[in-house]
From TrEMBL:
Species whose genome carries this gene: Stenotrophomonas rhizophila
Protein name from the UniProt record: 2-dehydro-3-deoxygluconokinase
Top enzyme class: transferase
Residues in Carbohydrate kinase PfkB domain copies: 1-220
Source taxon at top rank: Bacteria
Amino acid sequence: MSRVVCFGELLLRMSAPGRELLLQSAQLAVHAGGAEANVGVSLAHLGHAVSVVSTVPCNPLGDFALGELRRHGVDTTAVRRSDGRMGLYFLTTGAVQRASEVVYDRADSAFANSSAGDYDWDALLAGADWLHLSGVSPALNPAMAQATLAAARAACARGVKVSFDGNFRPSLWARWQGDAPGILRELFACADLVFADYRDIGVVLGGEFEQADVRERVDAAAAQAFAAFPRLQWMACTQRTPHSVDNHALGAMLIGRDGTRAMAPTREMLGIVDRIGGGDAFAAGILHGMMRGFAPDAIVRFGLAAGCLKHSIPGDFNPVSEADIMALTGEERFDVRR
Ligand SMILES: Nc1ncnc2c1ncn2[C@@H]1O[C@H](COP(=O)(O)OP(=O)(O)O)[C@@H](O)[C@H]1O
Ligand SMILES: O=C(O)C(=O)C[C@H](O)[C@H](O)COP(=O)(O)O
């Protein structure tokens, strides 16, 4: 069991029922989420000691979010409570030719209005093996960009490994015209492991990757990332091919500075239930494989299977066990397990 600290915004997802348009009927389903918390919930189900560091408002919405994390075995004692509002996002799930859509309603949330000085990383990182961060937090505003950097630098300074998920959100950066490449470069420089593909590396280092094969683009991007960021050891990413809104193929790669190149065979996912959080479930699967000392091929197969399972589960979280994921990597069986 490892000890993992996840820093980021807790969100509530408000979603239209089934495949309805947003507010087509006067109902919304509510789920707790947020990129880094999603990773934390997965890792707690995989047996790790996880604590989430964040800020939520002192109101019933903040209580709900914390209750959901606790229900999934995540330690919430390091979550600050403050004035302000809960970050929300509204999800309309697509169907047929209509794509899914996310509308954020998170400006001036209690988390977005916190700052670097609110988090005592000496205490928060004591005994931690990994700190997990994502590109969502620095995209919120200048203070959160600094707070995320402070967390990453504190972990580096204390010998805590840093896992950083690119999670590029152009609409958040555009709200304040933040210098995404400059800030993300500083975060990548602190990371041991990044979840990023050639598009993320294109944003961070500039330039485009035009190789015909997507995996060759990832290889080229990884080579540039290892050259630019001496601390970086691993880059992992999925390759998604949407055949339609509900039917995607998902493959995955794990590339190491030492020349390791592991690929998981592509999985066809037909009749996707909910893809939001699939990337976070993948990230948690990769982290789990690394923390358990799996071989690179097994790590990437485990991560991909975790991400695929998430596509079958409504809500942001992927509350599945190691055995659930192993059942998929090992047997390729889809009948009832009895
Ligand atoms: N517009 C974009 N520019 C650069 N990178 C992007 C953009 N959109 C997504 N990405 C990156 O591509 C990767 C895959 O994203 P996505 O397709 O949303 O997959 P998933 O849901 O599996 O995480 C992520 O690392 C994300 O940061
Ligand atoms: O956008 C944000 O700020 C969020 O945190 C909301 C989402 O829950 C995660 O981002 C899911 O991300 P994927 O796993 O890539 O689908």
